[in-house]
Amino acid sequence: xxxxxxTQASEARAADSGAQASSRFKDRISxxxxxxxxxxxxxxxxxxxxxxxxxxxIEEEQVSYDEYNAxxxxxxxxxxxxxxxxxxxxxxxxxxxxxxxSHRDGSKGTIEGPYYxxxxxxxxxxxxxxxxxxxxxxPFQFKSKVTAVDGTPLSGAKLEMWHADEYGLYSQFAPxxxxxxxxxxxxxxxxxxxxxxxxxxxxxxxxxxGACGQLIAxxxxxxxxxxxxxxxxxxxxxELLTAQLYFPGDEHNDDDIASAVKPELMLDPQPAEDxxxxxVQYDFVLDPER
Length: 290
What we know:
This protein is α/β, with parallel strands linked by helices. The protein has helices spanning 3-33, 40-61, 65-80, 84-91, 93-101, 211-219, and strands at 122-124, 139-148, 158-162, 183-187, 193-199, 204-205, 224-225, 228-234, 241-246, 270-271, 278-281, 284-286. The protein has one domain (3-286): Aromatic compound dioxygenase (Protocatechuate 3,4-Dioxygenase, subunit A, Sandwich), CATH 2.60.130.10. The strands form 3 sheets. A 5-stranded mixed sheet has the order 1-4-3-8-9, with no helix packed on it. α3 (65-80) runs antiparallel to α6.
């Protein structure tokens, strides 16, 4: 990627990623929306608690009309900027994920985030992530084995992987990047193993030109996410594991804006055996479906 292409991609990323995240989320849930029955008692309980919590804050903090109107204007802008997926995934999803997976005995997971794309092209267990011929970045070899909680290798396992590039940009959410760049689905060998060639991703800031960026600036927060590799690991008869894998030494491991880092998700990269870049072994344990 040239310097000019990188600059153009960075400038357009906030506006593009918000619209893309909203559009893709709506597409993903539209097929299932009519299949889910409405539990009126559950909606009543959750909606009442949410409204009560907000009214309690208003009363406790003596929120003024100016502050209330500023909030109303900001909520409208979140929708106009297409940033509801970004807002919810950054600040709330980590709590939902903890609740949803609290029963598991296998590997720890974490949030999916707003940049997942379904149906990435399939590759064999020892393949290479799709990338440009001149893809910048440190070569990174990811080795893994998927087993059940009883230690049985899962030969039918599937590993979806996606991550940002050397500039912190995701394909399909920033212009000028090939459609499936650094996105792929890998199929395990008979021993449940993977050996994947990719590049080490970079840390990045979540988009800050829109409504979420306004909140970050107003609150005096930072917008950084530590470098990470996204994975979804699945096998017939087992619960889907969604995770992000992190690199030691990143300055934002301890204050990730998305609160998604867990000690169990930390990688341990070592110098590659062939002398080119780094390699790591990180294994997954899947829980049986309940």
